[in-house]
Amino acid sequence: MFSERLKNERKLHHYTQEFVAQKIGVTRAAYSAYESGKRQPNFEILKCIAQILNISIDYLLENSNQKRYRNMVSTQKSDLGAMAEELLLEINKNQETDFWGEPASKRQKAYLQAAIETALKLSKTNPK
């Protein structure tokens, strides 16, 4: 459901409703209504939300499970640690996941999970 995906994505980014509302130019109450399913954003606001959360509009509208919004010229700063932790969460949810365009096996997921966890541990112990 749109409202659930919207809320989950906002929380994954550790954004408040107030922050997203300010960025898209609506009141916090209006944004809250999007998350509760009481209102639907217009297309321009939907585009802004997708850009802020770095996800595709199709994913938000449940037309696709392809989550990432691919933008060659991004004005947002990427947080690689947050992206890695988000990827770990998705792997742990055990949802259908692709690996190079093909369904991922349990073994591939386990290897990827171990690699990401190791990289995160190493980066936290020796940040430079």
TrEMBL record:
InterPro entries: Cro/C1-type_HTH, Lambda_DNA-bd_dom_sf. The keyword Membrane does not apply. SUPFAM superfamilies: lambda repressor-like DNA-binding domains. It holds the Pfam family HTH_3. It comes from the Bacteria. Keywords: DNA-binding. CDD domains: HTH_XRE (cd00093). GO terms for molecular function: DNA binding. Residues 6-60 form the HTH cro/C1-type domain. The keyword Ligase does not apply. This is HTH cro/C1-type domain-containing protein. It comes from Bombilactobacillus bombi.
